[in-house]
Amino acid sequence: MEPYLIITDIDGTLAVDHQHVSPRTVAALNACMDQGHQFFVATGRMYALAKIIANQVGPRAGVIGSNGAVYDFGGKRVHHLLGEKALRAVNEITESHGLTAFYFTDDTVYYTKTPPTFVADALRVFDKGLTVEVKEVGTLENLLAHKERITNGIVISPRDSFGLKRSMNELDASGLLHVSASNTDNMELIPKGIDKATAIQELQKLTGIPAERTIAFGDGMNDRGMLQVAGISVAMANAVAAVKNIAKYETASNTEDGIAKFLEQRFNLPHPHIN
C-alpha cells in the first residue's frame, strides 16, 4: 500500500479531554504507522505542549505546532517566526483594547503585562507542560529580545468579545500576520502566510505524499485550511458547522474514538477490544 499522511488536530479531535488520547485511538494510529503511513498532530499549541500529546501516541508521531509555524521533519525542526513588525503591531493594538497577548517559543510563554485573574487562570494549562516556562517581560523592548524565537501567540478574552473583535479586525487589516481563532473567546496570532495548511503542503512536498493520500481530522475554525488541502478531509461529530460544511467525511466525536473508527474502516484495521 502506498503511504498516507495522517494529520489530526488535538483539542476536540485527538484528545478526549484536552490532555489524553484514548487507548483505541493510540492503537489505530500505531497500526497505521506500522503499515508505513506517517502521522502528525497539528495544533495551535506551542511545540512543547503539542509534543506531550504526540508522545502519548508514540515516538514516531510528528508535530505540527503553533498553527503551522513549527513542525518536525527528518529529525529536524522547521520554524516560521512572527517577526518584529508583527510583534509591535500586536502589542500596540491589544494594549489599546485592554487585552493581554501571550507569545510562544517552542518551550516558553512570554507576556508584557500582568493579565486579569480570569485570563491568568487560562495559563494553568501550561502547568501540565513540565518543560514550559511562563515569563512576564514587562516591556515591548524586552519582548523583542526574544523575536528570533517567537513563532506565534494568542489573546484570550472571555469577557470582552467586542475588544477581541476590534483587535482581530485591526491586526488583520495590518497585513503583518495571519489571524485566526480556535474558539470564540480567543485570537490566534500566526506568521503571515502560515497556517496548518501551509505546514501540511510543505510536508506533502517533503514526503512526496500527495493531497489525495492525505487524511486530515479537525473540529474548529482553524482546521478549515488543513482540511481543504487534504484529499480526505474528516470532520468530527462535535465539529463546528463551518468545518462540517467543507469536510468530505464525518466521523464520531473525539470522546467516541472518532479518529480510530475512521482509520479502522479505511485501512481495514482489526477492531481492538479496548475500553
Automatic annotation (TrEMBL):
GO molecular function, one term: hydrolase activity
SUPFAM superfamilies: HAD-like (SSF56784)
Pfam families the UniProt entry points to: Hydrolase_3
Keyword flag Cell wall biogenesis/degradation: no
Keyword Hydrolase: yes
Keywords: Hydrolase
NCBIfam families: Cof-subfamily, HAD-SF-IIB
Protein's recorded name: HAD family hydrolase
